[in-house]
Amino acid sequence: MHYITSERIQVGAIYGGKTRVRPVWFIWSGKKYHVYKVNHMWKEGNGREVLVFFSVSDQANTYLLCYNALDMEWTICGTYTEG
Hints:
Elements: E1 2-15, E2 21-28, E3 31-34, E4 37-46, E5 49-57, E6 62-68, E7 73-80
Antiparallel strand pairs: 1-2, 1-7, 2-3, 4-5, 5-6, 6-7
């Protein structure tokens, strides 16, 4: 099942290393989710604004997180769950 949204979230991330930034957990609707795996990462630019997208998964579901490098803000853009 796909769920599309655009909600601001809190994210704990590690900065540095070969990917520069990697989310390790996020809080969405009052619940904390631990990132088990970063499946894919890509960037999209629009003028000065650079959006970095992360497809991440816990051990059950996949989430699409977006980091706005200009504003330094995170949003969740969607989820995918089995069943």
